[in-house]
Amino acid sequence: MRRVQFIELNEQPWFPSSLRDGATDALQFGLNLSNAYTPIAPLLLCALDSARSRSIVDLCSGGGGPWLSLCRKLQPEGQIFRILLTDKYPNLRAFQNVRTASENHVAYYPDSVDAMKVPGELQGFRTVFTAFHHFRPEEARAILQNAVNARQCIGIFEITRRTPSTIALMFAWALMLFILTPLIRPFRWSRLLFTYLVPIIPFTLLFDGVVSCLRTYRPQELREMIEKLSGIEYKWEMGEHPRTSGLLPITYLIGRPRHVSQLADS
Question: I want to staple 251 with a disulfide (CB 3.0 to 4.6 A). Which of 9, 48, 129, 158 is the partner?
Answer without folding.
Answer: 158
